[in-house]
Specification:
Length: 255
């Protein structure tokens, strides 16, 4: 890869990481771009996951310092995520890219619509609702499988699940999913490393970029109010879902 193309890729990863701290959907942009740069699909997914591990760590630190994470609620999700993400990473190559794009797009649109109509989804109203723990555990495990497989939109959907069914304020859900994603991306990366799919030279450069972008983004995201976080989340979900559907059906119609 030329220095010029590498510079573009690094800039793109930095910008999407700044946004991804809140939305969790940066892989829906970064991985397809890596495909366009001629990187093998499995290597792109694995190398992106390698970078996501460092991004998740960088994004988690400011939230931990500000006491945004409820560890009593999160620790069972970490165990489920570990198992689910390991299973998902082992499935790489079984599901086609087209199938993944369609599933992610439909899921993101459905979640965005659901959250939009749940007007009391944040703050004290969320905390007042009874958590549906069994449902959250089942959904977290299922989403972890997908998170280990590809990760595009994984944190976005998991954030919505924690808000809607686990009685978490939006800011707490955003913080919690960052810690959960450390577990998800780390176990997936270890499996990809064992399979020899990670491009370490590119991965290290992108990891440093994503760590810095995530740390900066999380520093400001932790200070945002619930309404602003909610608007950024919903707007990004809808736009990314529509773009993914457009790309998918465009490819089908113009074969």
């Amino acid at each position: 890869m030329s220095l010029w193309l590498l510079s573009i890729l690094v800039l793109l990863f930095f910008v999407t990481t700044l946004v991804g701290v809140v939305t969790g959907s940066n892989s829906l942009i970064t991985v397809p771009v890596m495909f366009q740069f001629g990187i093998d699909e499995k290597v792109a997914v694995a190398t992106n996951m390698f970078g996501l591990t460092f991004m998740s760590v960088g994004a988690t630190i400011p939230f931990v310092r500000q006491g945004k994470i409820n560890y009593g609620k999160v620790w069972p999700l970490l165990l489920l995520t570990f198992a689910g993400s390991a299973a998902g990473a082992a499935l790489v190559g079984v599901i086609t890219n087209q199938g993944l794009k369609l599933i992610v797009s439909i899921a993101m649109i459905a979640v965005a619509v659901f959250i939009f109509w749940q007007r009391d989804a944040g703050g004290q109203a969320a905390a007042a609702r009874e958590p549906k723990r069994v449902l959250v555990y089942l959904l977290s495990f299922g989403l972890a499988i997908y998170g280990g497989l590809y990760s595009g939109g994984y944190v976005t959907i998991l954030t919505a699940v924690l808000v809607a069914f686990f009685a978490m304020p939006f800011s707490e859900a955003v913080a919690s999913t960052k810690l959960i994603n450390v577990c998800s991306s780390l176990i997936a990366t270890l499996i990809f490393m064992r399979e020899g799919l990670v491009d370490y030279k590119l991965g290290i450069i992108l990891s440093i970029t994503m760590f810095i972008g995530a740390y900066i983004g999380a520093h400001y995201a932790a200070k945002m109010n619930e309404t602003l976080l909610r608007r950024i989340f919903l707007a990004t979900v809808v736009l990314l879902a529509l773009k993914t559907l457009y790309d998918l059906f465009g490819a089908l119609f113009y074969r």
